[in-house]
Structures are given as C-alpha cells and as structure tokens.
C-alpha cells in the first residue's frame, strides 16, 4: 500500500530513540516552545497553540511552512481574520516609525570582563527572576518570576515571593 501511495518507509530502532535525530530535534523544539507558553501544570492545554505556531513557521531551507506544504496556501491565523484598513494603520504607525528612526543604538557590552554582573544596571531593577536550582521536570522553567524587588543590597535583592515570603 505504501508503494502505491508513493510513500517510502524507513525503519528506526525502537530500543534506541536517540539514533533518530530528526525526531529528537523536533522533541527538543517542542519542549522549548511548551516551556515558553507554560504557566501552570497542565501542558496539554497549551499543546494545540504550540503546534499551530510550529506548523506555521517557515522552514529555513524551503522558505515555506509545513501547513503550506500540506494545504497549498498559508493558514489564516486567529489574528488575521480581521482585515485592518491599511490607510488608518499607516497613519497610526508613522509617528512611531519616525520615533524609532531617531533612536540611538546602545553601545555594545563586553562580556569578557571578570565581573559577574554590571552592578549599576541592576540597581534600578524593579523585578527579578529567581533561578530554581536542583532537579526540575522537563517542562519546568529554569527561573521563577518575575518578582517585585523590595530592596537592593550589595550582592542580593529582597523580593516578595508568591507565598508572601521574602
């Protein structure tokens, strides 16, 4: 049946899934995308949105998305159902474009210094992320937060955690 449909069957080892590089790379991409969307323990609720995003991203080598290859045209995403008035949009965007053109780029930072952080830039921080050390699940984020900063010390921040602890 596969020959009649023009499908090439390729067998992979079920006992050594690491040998199938394409599948493992997709799993890594899927897990990274789920981590960015995940706000609670139920990852299954976010899975359709993550898969929609992955299927509509153009492939670098083909310059088309997976959905375009399947359906022959790009998918209409939820934000594209309403056709905005192009003249009204351009009149609202023009002031922002002129503002962006006047912006001066910041000088490059050098990461080869021996200091671990730039203390002066952290003094003005209003929110921080706290690294979760130790064992964490495959879909858990490495950082918790953002948490509001209460006070700034020489080498530490005090902030309110979700459970009311400092």
Describe this structure in words.
- With 166 residues, this protein is an alpha+beta fold.
- A three-stranded antiparallel β-sheet has the order 1-2-3, with no helix packed on it.
- It has six helices and three strands; from the N terminus they run ααααααβββ.
- The chain has helices at residues 2-5, 21-37, 47-56, 66-71, 86-102, 119-122; strands spanning 127-131, 143-152, 157-159.
- It has two domains: 2-80, no CATH class; 121-159, no CATH class.
- Helix 2 crosses helix 3.
- The protein is extended.
- The protein is 35% helix and 11% strand.
- Residues 1-94 form the Integrase catalytic domain.
- One of its GO terms (molecular function) is nucleic acid binding.
- InterPro entries: Integrase_cat-core, RNaseH-like_sf, RNaseH_sf.
- This is Pol polyprotein.
Features:
166 residues; three-stranded antiparallel sheet; alpha+beta
In short:
The chain has 166 residues and is an alpha+beta fold. Helices cover 35% and strands 11% of the residues.
Number of helices: 6
When the domains are counted, the total is 2
Distance between the termini: 65 Å
Element order: H for helix, E for strand:
HHHHHHEEE
The portion of residues forming beta strands comes to: 5-15%
- For the biggest β-sheet, the strand order reads 1-2-3
GO molecular function: nucleic acid binding
Domain Integrase catalytic: 1-94
GO biological process, one term: DNA integration
InterPro entries: Integrase_cat-core (IPR001584), RNaseH-like_sf (IPR012337), RNaseH_sf (IPR036397)
């Amino acid at each position: 049946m596969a020959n009649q449909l023009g499908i090439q069957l390729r067998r992979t080892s079920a006992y050594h899934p690491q040998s199938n590089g394409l599948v493992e790379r997709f799993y890594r991409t899927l897990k990274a995308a789920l981590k960015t969307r995940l706000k609670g323990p139920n990852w299954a609720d976010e899975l359709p949105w993550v898969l929609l995003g992955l299927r509509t991203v153009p492939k670098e080598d083909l310059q088309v998305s997976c959905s375009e290859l399947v359906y022959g045209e790009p998918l209409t995403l939820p934000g594209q159902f309403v056709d905005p008035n192009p003249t009204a949009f351009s009149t609202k965007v023009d002031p922002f474009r002129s503002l962006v053109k006047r912006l001066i780029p910041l000088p490059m930072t050098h990461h080869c210094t021996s200091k671990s952080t730039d203390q002066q830039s952290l003094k003005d921080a209003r929110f921080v992320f706290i690294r979760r050390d130790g064992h964490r699940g495959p879909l858990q984020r490495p950082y918790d937060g953002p948490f509001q900063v209460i006070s700034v010390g020489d080498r530490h921040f005090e902030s309110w955690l979700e459970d009311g602890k400092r």
